[in-house]
């Protein structure tokens, strides 16, 4: 964002008088450079409203907030979240790092960096920030849930399963923790266990859309296309449902490579 330069104004005032009553000319020093005050930060209500915007608009809003207060880690973290939602994972990780440079122990910035690394497929680099959150907030279920995904990406399945179970111990009814454990089972070939957990998660009133869509994927990969399509239609437009169902039928049709990739297509709910 461009910053408008501010021109300094100088003024010389000369008082001239003639004759016997003339005074010594008074010379005033140059006025100090005038700077436009920085705009005030958005109010809590404005910030809350910004969270309901699309990712591009959120990124623009929080970028302006970061300019207004370069020392506040919150805008940098929010920029990272918006960039991740736009699929710009490298940029998101850099924004999260900027937030952590301002506040190394900021829990949300640490969590965001872990999410960004997972989104990049580099779960190994998500382990350290997620572990740091566990130290700072040992009762926060999100850290072990993300650790479970990170460990799995790092090909450490035993630690991944233990981390997912720890997340559920902290938040037994949380649909995201349930979903992430279910996806662990799905990716390791246990579709029935994955389905059971996803059905439990999807029944929660606060379950995000991704939970139902992952359940539809698990059902479709087991050849239960009618159930999968019914679930998909709850949240997706008809054209996208048709594309997804065509993909599932191809993946479940015995093509080993396609089937393997289809399990990978399921995403942890972060």
Structure description:
This protein has a domain at 173-270: Serine Threonine Protein Phosphatase 5, Tetratricopeptide repeat (Alpha Horseshoe), CATH 1.25.40. Helix content is 63%, strand content 0%. It has helices spanning 44-50, 55-68, 73-85, 89-102, 107-119, 124-136, 142-153, 157-170, 175-187, 191-202, 209-221, 225-232, 238-251, 256-264. Helix 7 runs parallel beside helix 9 (175-187) and helix 10 runs antiparallel to helix 11. The protein is globular, with a radius of gyration of 28 Å. It starts with 43 loop residues before the first helix and ends in a 6-residue tail after the last helix. The relative contact order is 0.06.
Given helix and strand content, the structural type is mainly alpha
β-sheet strand percentage:
under 5%
- pLDDT averaged over residues: 84
For the record, the CATH architecture of the domain at 173-270 stands as: Alpha Horseshoe
CATH topology of the domain at 173-270: Serine Threonine Protein Phosphatase 5, Tetratricopeptide repeat
The SSE order reads HHHHHHHHHHHHHH
pLDDT under 50 segments (min length 5)? Answer: 1-25, 255-263
Distance between the termini: 30 Å
**Biggest β-sheet description:** none
Instruction: Describe the global form.
Output: globular
Quick one: CATH class of the domain at 173-270? Mainly Alpha
Q: What is the number of helical segments per DSSP (H or I, 4+ residues)?
A: 14
Helix content: 55-70%
How many runs of DSSP E, i.e. beta strands?
0
Radius of gyration over all CA atoms, rounded = 28 Å
């Amino acid at each position: 964002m461009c910053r408008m330069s501010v021109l300094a104004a100088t003024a010389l005032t000369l008082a001239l008088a003639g004759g016997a009553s003339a005074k010594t000319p008074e010379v005033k020093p140059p006025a100090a450079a005038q700077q436009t005050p920085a705009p005030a930060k958005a109010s809590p209500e404005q910030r809350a409203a910004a969270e309901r915007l699309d990712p591009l608009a959120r990124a623009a809003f929080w970028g302006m907030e970061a300019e207004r207060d370069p020392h506040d880690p919150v805008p940098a973290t929010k920029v990272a979240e918006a960039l991740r939602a736009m699929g710009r994972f490298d940029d998101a990780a850099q924004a999260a790092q900027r937030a952590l440079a301002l506040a190394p122990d900021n829990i949300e910035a640490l969590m965001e960096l872990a999410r960004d690394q997972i989104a990049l497929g580099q779960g190994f680099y998500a382990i350290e920030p997620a572990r740091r959150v566990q130290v700072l907030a040992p009762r926060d279920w999100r850290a072990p849930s993300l650790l479970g995904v990170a460990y799995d990406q790092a090909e450490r399945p035993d630690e991944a399963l233990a981390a997912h179970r720890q997340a559920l111990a902290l938040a037994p009814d949380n649909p995201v923790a349930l979903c992430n454990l279910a996806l662990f089972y799905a990716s390791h070939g246990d579709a029935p266990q994955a389905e059971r957990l996803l059905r439990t998660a999807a029944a929660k009133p606060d379950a995000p859309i991704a939970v139902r869509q992952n359940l539809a994927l698990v059902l479709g990969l087991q050849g239960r296309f009618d159930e999968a399509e019914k679930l998909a239609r709850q949240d997706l437009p008809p054209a996208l449902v048709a594309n997804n169902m065509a993909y599932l039928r191809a993946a479940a049709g015995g093509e080993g490579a396609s089937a393997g990739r289809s399990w990978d297509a399921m995403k942890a709910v972060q």
